[in-house]
Amino acid sequence: MSTALKAWDAYDKYRQRRRQLKDQADALTVEEKQHPAPAVPAVSGDVRTLAGDLRDRKRELSRAKTILATFEEKGAVECPTCGTSVTTIHEHLEVQRVIVREYPTIIKQETATLAILEEYAEAVRWHELWREGFTARLQANQESREALKNVTAPDGDRDALRSVCAAFAESEATLCTVTSTL
Known about the structure:
The protein is an all-alpha fold. It has helices at residues 3-34, 47-73, 90-147, 158-181.
C-alpha cells in the first residue's frame, strides 16, 4: 500500500476521532442541562446557628417541663433548691408555661427548616463534586478537539490513488508470473 493511501487512512481515523469528540461534546451539553444547580430553598439561615438554637430551645423546654412538674404536679409551695415561695415566683412559672405551650411548635418548625437547609447543603456539595468532574471532562474534550482542529485531507484523489495502486499491484503480479515462466 502506498504512503499516500496510508495518509488517507490516518486522515479517516482523525475524522472518526473528531466525530467521536463532537458526539462526546454533545453528550456533555445534554448532561449539563440535566444537572442544574440545586434550587435555593425558600427558607434561609445558617445550619450551625439554627442547630445550636434548636438544641438550646429543646433544653429550655425540658427545663421548663421539669420546673412546672415540680411546682404544679407535686404541689410544692416553695422552690426545692432555693426555698423561694411559689407566690413570689409566679411570673417565672408563667414564663415556663408559655415555653411549654409554644416551644413544641417552634421546635417543629425549626427542625423542618434545619432539615431543608441540610438537604440543600448536601445537594450543593454533590453538585459541586459533579461539576468538578464534569468541568475536567469538558476541558479534556475541548483540548482534544482543539488538537485535531487543523488536520487537513492529504493531497490527491483517494479513488485515483487506489486505482493506480490496484493497477500497479496487477502489473507486479503479471510481471512475477512472466518472470517465473522464463
